[in-house]
Amino acid sequence: MARVVAVTGNEAGAEALRQVNPDVCAAYPITPQTDMMQRFAGFVSNGQVDTEMILVESEHSAMSACIGAAAGGGRVITATSSQGLALMWEMLFIAAGDRLPIVMPVVNRALSAPLNIHGDHSDAMGARDSGWIQLWSENAQEAYDNIIQAFRIAEHMDIRLPVMVCLDGFIISHSIERVEYLDDEVVREFVGEYRPMNPLLDVDNPKSYGPLILPDLYHEYKRAQHEVMGRVKGVVLEVASEFEKISGRRYGLFESYRLEDADLVMVILNSAAGTAKDVIDHYRDRGIKAGLLKPRLFRPFPYEEVAEALRNAKAVAVLDRADSFGAYGPLFVEITSATLHLDKRPFLINKIYGLGGRDFLPEHAGQVLEELKEIVETGRVKTIKEYIGVRE
Amino acid sequence: MSEPFWKRLTPGSVILEAGNAVEFKTGSWRAFRPVWKEENCIHCLFCWMFCPDMSVIVEDGKMKGFNYDYCKGCGICALECPGKKGKKAIEMQEEGK
């Protein structure tokens, strides 16, 4: 029977990893991820998992060790945040290019400078082009569920790519919420026995990882990597439908909340979506057709499906908890690309919110919906990109 | 239409065939070639030990010359060669001269 518990996001993440019982974990502590890996290291010390825990001297080494272990033929995990993810930078591309199905919770945190340990999406957005699959999670339950599903997606024989599972630092990682845990056996059966692909430890069949590939073949390997990303959506949906059978919880490529007939739409990732939904309910009570689209699969980005979901919207506000300085926010760029081919495009605005853990308050969501209302009434967008919640 | 070439590549650029570096002849990279002067050779095999590739041919414990298919002309053998009575047994000569 499923257990209902009151836990933090980090605790739920560690629990999912315990239930999966991976072969190798190489990790380095960084706020706000520390607590998740500390709990997992506890499971290792207490003999609750069979995992080989490698304590390394940096995140660059953590990802390097993960790559070696995954190439060796093991089911491999790590977790990180912020500067840690930034330090992994070059190894992220190698994990993806080598097609190694590493699973990594990323507890989203702002990047220095100025130094800040709180939740924002600058870290994972910086890694969006690394070739990793990215799943985003609104709350502790979604983080737990996404981590379990991530193994099936990463390890699918048609995919073999690493997966990041993003959850908001502190807001989710350190807040206690109601979470439903699945039984250990159910999780173990769901993820199944690990099937290695071309493992180095199969010493009877020697092979080489990481060769030099010159201009005569590099382009073709990248073409193949692009092709694999094209298969991810289907696998994510297939895994989600199997997960629904064991959990009763339904996941898609994104969540639509009161979106079907919505005129005014907010697109928002992770924890702030909860606040936005509450405000949308108040608007609906007043007869205003507001709705929300919360992406779950950000890489690869489901352009066609998102465009279809936004087809009837009149005005869309895309909220980014990360900035691309001198450009539009990363999520806004995807939404504008997705809607580009619609016959009738909605008005689109971009709001940068919540950087460095600045709270996203109901009044901010209200302010955005008011602006969308005005845009629809006047047929005019004043400012495309703007910061909200800035102290005056 | 046959399947495009890139679809047949091993995932992650893993090379499944062992020992195929032998097919990659790197000798063409060479700008200087080591030339063996047998009369100055004391068969100490320093050249064989120091060669970063496997380009020094040794038979029955004796130096026999170079395998120019793989020698990249790094010159380590010539540098390390003690020679005989101050005369080197390996000299580097510019290719094409």
Q: How is the secondary structure organized here?
A:
The complex is a heterodimer of chains A (392) and B (97).
Chain A lengths: L2 E5 L1 H12 L3 E4 L6 H12 L6 E4 L3 H14 L3 E2 L4 H6 L1 H9 L5 E6 L13 H5 L6 E5 L2 H16 L7 E6 L8 E5 L2 H8 L26 H30 L6 E4 L6 E5 L3 H14 L4 E6 L1 E3 L3 H7 L5 E6 L9 H10 L7 E6 L9 H17 L6 E3 L5
Parallel strand pairs in A: 2-3, 2-4, 5-7, 6-7, 10-11, 10-13, 13-14, 14-15
Antiparallel strand pairs in A: 1-8, 6-12, 9-11
Helix pairs in contact in A: 1-2, 1-7, 3-5, 7-9, 10-13, 11-12
Chain B lengths: L31 E5 L9 H5 L5 E4 L2 E5 L9 H5 L9 E5 L3
Antiparallel strand pairs in B: 1-4, 2-3
Structural descriptors:
heterodimer, A: 392 residues, alpha/beta, Rossmann fold, 2 domains, six-stranded mixed β-sheet, 13 helices, 18% strand, globular, B: 97 residues, alpha+beta, Alpha-Beta Plaits, two-stranded antiparallel ribbon, 4 strands, elongated
Summed over residues and divided by their number, the pLDDT of chain A gives a mean of 98
The CATH superfamily of the largest domain in chain A is known as Thiamin diphosphate (ThDP)-binding fold, Pyr/PP domains
Silhouette of chain B: elongated
Q: What's the CATH architecture of chain B?
A: 2-Layer Sandwich
User: How many β-strands of chain B, per DSSP?
Assistant: 4
How does CATH name the architecture of the largest domain in chain A? Answer: 3-Layer(aba) Sandwich
**Beta fraction of the residues of chain A?**
15-25%
Look up the CATH topology of chain B: Alpha-Beta Plaits
Instruction: Give the class of chain A from helix and strand content and strand pairing.
Output: alpha/beta
Q: Which structural class do the helices and strands of chain B define? A: alpha+beta
What portion of residues of chain B is helical? 10-25%
- Major sheet: arrangement of strands of chain A: 9-11-10-13-14-15
Low-confidence stretches of chain A: none
Q: Outline the low-pLDDT stretches of chain B.
A: none
Largest β-sheet summary of chain A: 6 strands, mixed
Which CATH top level class of chain B fits? Alpha Beta
| Percent in strands of chain B | 15-25%
Tell me the Rg of chain A in angstroms. Answer: 21 Å
SSE succession of chain B: EHEEHE
Oligomer state equals heterodimer
* CATH class descriptor of the largest domain in chain A: Alpha Beta
